[in-house]
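Hey, resending since the last one bounced:
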Amino acid sequence: MGESIPSHSIVPAHPPQVQPSWGNGTLPAPTMPRPPFERPMSAIRRYKWIVLAIFLLAIVGGLAATRFLKPQYEVRATIWIEPETPLSDASGPIRSRELLNSSAWVELLRSYRIVDAVVQKLALYVQPDHPSDFGIFSNFAIANRFIPGKYELQIDRARKRWHLALKDGTFADSGSVADSVGLRAGLLWVVPSSLFGGSGKREIDFTVSTPRETAVELMKQLSADLPEKSNFLWLRLRSDDPQLAQLTLNTWLKEYVNVASQLKKRNLVQFASILGGQLQYAERSLHDAEKALEDFRVHTITLPAEGGPVAAGVEVTRDPALKSFFDQKIEYDDTRHDREALEKVIAGAKSGSVPWEAALLIPSVAKGSGADALRDAFSQLHAKQAELATKREVYTDQHPAVREVATTVQTLQTQTIPRLASQLLVQLKQREAEYDSRINGASRELQAIPTRTIEEMRLRRAVAVSEGLYTTLKSRSGEAQLAEASATQDVTVLDSAVAPLRPTRNTAPTVFLLAIFGGLGAAIGIAMLLDTFDPKIQYPEQVTGELGLTIAGAIPKFPRGGVDSRFPEQLSQLIESIRTVRMHVQNASGFPVSIAVTSPSPSDGKSFVAANLAMSFADAGFRTVLVDADTRRGVLHEMFQLPIGPGLTEYLSQADSITAVIRPTPHERLSILSRGEKRSNSPELLTSVALPALAAELRQRFDVVVFDTPPLAAGIDAYAVAAAAQNLMLVLRIGKTDRRMASAKLELVDRLPVRVLGAVLNCVEPKGEFAYYKYSEGYGVADETSTALLP
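The structure tokens again:
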């Protein structure tokens, strides 16, 4: 496009794309340290009206809340509790326990029996909307069945009538002065006649609740504390009306003492009544026990008894009878054992496992009188066996003498002895049965003696127990009757409630302070939130950090009418800011200076910066030309009061020469190349090869070439001009330029052979984070008027 561009001039738009050069080295852009509260303070200043509105709303809300928060008063009282009855330490099987344990005293205080009575006596279930109307309800009462709700009472003084209605419209009633108000709704109330005096009407709003609901709410206001192992019950009642709180707590105390006394009296009466009934029962039981012992003695006086008196001669016969019983018992056991042994021998002998001679080991066989025949048979057997052995020594088994003796032995073993053993077994069984019969008869006679003895002992014990219980209950019944006659109450009021002069707790100041600090915190939080989500450029670090641009300078913000000549300091600040930009461009680009000045969007002040930057270079003695490359909406010819053409469009379309389009200005070193007439092909002209050729020609003719381009958001015009100028300066307007748009446009610049020299911050208020870009006052020069071209 005219002349080649050195490769070192093509740099990205993000760090570290351009650094100002000083001497032979390159210094990094300085980073300003930020105080920790600088950005929050800036956000508060920017949204000060929102912060102020939220803060004022919080104050108003706090004041409104304090109107509904009433100071709380606390009345206190002390009760002494004697939990033991006069009979609690007495001994006896039935004792008078204490009326209530330590925790139950507090539960009794909170019982509905007491609280409902307090509510009924003081008519706390009715609550007028205005405290000044409390005196009207002095004789207010309710029936057993009534309609709760919000009521409105209208007094017609002229007609001397009243009208009562529920606010929900479900009930209405009316009457005259003498009529009971709300009788059909269950209300027992005669309105004072003084309300009907005068003229006009009066409305009274009040709420009637159920006594139980009122009691529940009242219990929430009471605090009771009974320390462990202590007889002091501390009471505290909170209310917004100290006089009502005093009356309520004192009424509560009286009702509590009365109920406790009634319970104590009833406890003693019931205890005495129970003892009386038990005494009658014990008396009947003693009589029955004595009668039972008497009847037993009469029926058993003729029967032998163990350890008791006996007739003459009975004691002598008692031991032989017992001896005979046990002798028979022994004989019975011996006979049973012999019978069992004989049965085993007979069974074993038949099976061949036991010899018949084993029967001789049984006492009844060996010594019994009924076993003589069996013993003789065994003797014969032994003799024949001996004879058989002798004969076998002389004769053989076939000898008649041997065979005769063997036959005899065989007969004894297989016939005679088994038969005799069976007969003896039958005898033993008969004898065993006889012993069993006699033993059973004697056993029953002897077993009756301990039973009669034990029964007599039981009856005697029953008499003794009944006698002891009767004696004890007789004594306790007398004590209970005495205690009933001299009963004293268990609770005593030590300190009555007194209405305090100062509130115990007043949350209104706290709520108001919380509203103030909460509103301030909310306002600051909303300001910070708005600041966080603000898409506009508001801070220098957004330019250096997010966009990666070096800040070339900051143009201060001036009034809408421009720089006021009556305030020379404004002009001095503008001149110094432009000089700072000029110095940055001069040292960053080298000579000849060729730079395009643009902005991401319209109205960012690029034309203002370009015109004043060109004027500043001209004031510094450089031959400067200002090119209006915004062929669509350029206004530099108006700023310098020059004709619109011929200009850039005419030159690029080859309609005029370069000498014809460059116009002088009142400043001898500043020339202007206006945009020319609008043409439909203006974008194509800017992207043609003629524009780079023009830029190269101007760099040869002038020391400084400044292009005022369209905004980057307008199309490709600015990119084409920047590529021709080779250097680009971006103008960002604080509080208006969109960060994301600027970042998106710079990404396109990164792909072009354009060197971004930095950014100029326009409309900067020299305070807060921008206070460091302000120039010291008092160093202005008196003739610095020519540089302030157009604000």
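Residues 314-485 form one domain.

Sorry for the duplicate.
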